[in-house]
Amino acid sequence: xxxxxxxxxxxxxxxxxxxxxxxxxxxxxxxxxxxxxxxxxxxxxxxxxxxxxxxxxxxxxxxxxxxxxxxxxxxxxxxxxxxxxxxxxxxxxxxxxxxxxxxxxxxxxxxxxxxxxxx
Length: 119
Fold this sequence. Notes:
By secondary structure, the protein is mainly β. It has strands at residues 3-7, 10-12, 18-25, 34-39, 46-51, 58-60, 68-73, 78-83, 92-100, 104-105, 113-117. Strands 2, 4, 5, 6, 9, 10 and 11 form a seven-stranded mixed β-sheet that branches. It has a four-stranded antiparallel β-sheet with strand order 1-3-8-7, with no helix packed on it. Strand 5 and strand 6 form a beta hairpin. The model has no long low-confidence stretch (mean pLDDT 96).
């Protein structure tokens, strides 16, 4: 059974940092590209970043380039998203998933982790 468990969210002040984790199980994590999406209530999910299986090829949403960094530990089956210089517009529920193709989610969604950037 596929499980994707996101954690690490919380309330952060503007300019602050947070590190999200996604613990994966039930599939061959090291063989698949992975990604982070985010969603604000009432809006479509937005693709934030993707990382290929080898861990070197990465893509980022323009608005987070230079601030967010995606990494993965294939032995531990964990995906990370280091978020720096957070802005109020980064406030969202963040979800991880495995990739199909360049940007489509492979599995159902986990519960996500909420990041709120405010004073």
